[in-house]
């Protein structure tokens, strides 16, 4: 099915590097006109540099695609509206939003500062809401649209030193589900990808012990382009019946995730006291407890 996005207009945030760049390039290659949104900041969110976005635009042009650049930040409501308006100004419509922009301010929880928390929430969670909300008006009017949000196994499963990032990424899952529920009446879909890739963001993973070095070696095999096909599919009409889901591409593997549902219950006709919970409920409910694990513990086998 060539040119799965022919005639569509896509916004890809954080498209100057890594996963965002590969998604933008593949979407343009599949026929979409693309707004490359990137402020050109460092991994921690400091500074501005137009070069990354310009490089993405040059690659798309070399491949015969069409794109324009937006250098506005996702982290403010007014600037997020400008990103969506750029699509309207350049291409006259908007069909796809890929919320990929992100930063890292990793810190162990008991040392994390309010500034480190706020900065990550502002870009990942607030930014995903702002850009999505700005596009929603157009999606509603035209009775169509697709959102692809970047979550993370750090939020879905867990990781050390990333309370801000994990909370934002799990929050994005809730945001995506709410969008899917609220906007289904307008033929608008919303899905999440929890990507696996070696990029600037994962380049901060420690590699000091032999175990850590082996983990990093596995991750380095997972290049950012492995995530682009899934994003293109989810944005296309071929995924018209897919919404409210969470996926991962891991090298040549694809995963769909379960979502939180009750798995075990106990009932006591006379009600519960704290003592009764300890004596009767806990032994039964504990059989359904989830382990305290990191992403690396769950995805412990080599990618294939």
TrEMBL record:
Domain Ketoreductase residue range list: 8-204
Coiled coil segments of this chain: none
PROSITE patterns given in the database record: ADH_SHORT
Family indicated by similarity: Belongs to the short-chain dehydrogenases/reductases (SDR) family.
UniProt protein name: Short-chain dehydrogenase
Originating species: Neoroseomonas lacus
Upper lineage: Bacteria, Pseudomonadati, Pseudomonadota, Alphaproteobacteria, Acetobacterales
């Amino acid at each position: 099915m060539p040119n799965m996005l022919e005639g569509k207009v896509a916004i890809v945030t954080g498209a100057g590097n890594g996963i965002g760049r590969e998604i933008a390039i593949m979407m343009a290659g599949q026929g979409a006109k693309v707004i490359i949104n990137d402020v050109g900041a460092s991994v921690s969110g400091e500074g501005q540099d137009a070069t990354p976005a310009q490089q993405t635009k040059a690659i798309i042009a070399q491949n015969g695609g069409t794109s324009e650049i937006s250098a506005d930040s996702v982290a403010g409501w007014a600037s997020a509206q400008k990103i969506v308006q750029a699509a309207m100004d350049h291409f006259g419509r908007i069909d796809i939003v890929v919320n990929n922009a992100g930063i890292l301010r990793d810190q162990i929880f008991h040392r994390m500062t309010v500034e480190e928390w706020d900065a990550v929430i502002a870009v990942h969670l607030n930014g995903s809401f702002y850009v999505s909300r700005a596009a929603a008006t157009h999606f509603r009017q035209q009775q169509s649209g697709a959102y692809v949000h970047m979550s993370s196994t750090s939020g879905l499963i867990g990781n050390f030193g990333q309370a801000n990032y994990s909370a934002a990424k799990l929050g994005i899952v809730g945001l995506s589900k709410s969008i899917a529920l609220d906007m289904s009446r307008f033929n608008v879909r919303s899905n999440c990808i929890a990507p696996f890739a070696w990029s600037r963001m994962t380049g901060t993973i420690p590699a000091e012990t032999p175990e850590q070095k082996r983990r990093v070696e596995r991750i380095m095999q997972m290049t950012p382009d492995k995530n682009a096909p899934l994003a293109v599919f989810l944005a296309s009409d071929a995924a018209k019946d897919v919404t409210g889901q969470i996926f991962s591409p891991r090298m040549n593997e694809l995963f769909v995730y379960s979502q939180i549902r009750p798995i075990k219950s106990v009932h006591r006709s006379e009600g519960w006291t704290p003592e009764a919970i300890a004596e009767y409920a806990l032994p039964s409910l504990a059989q359904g407890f989830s382990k305290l694990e990191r992403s690396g513990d769950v995805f412990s086998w080599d990618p294939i």
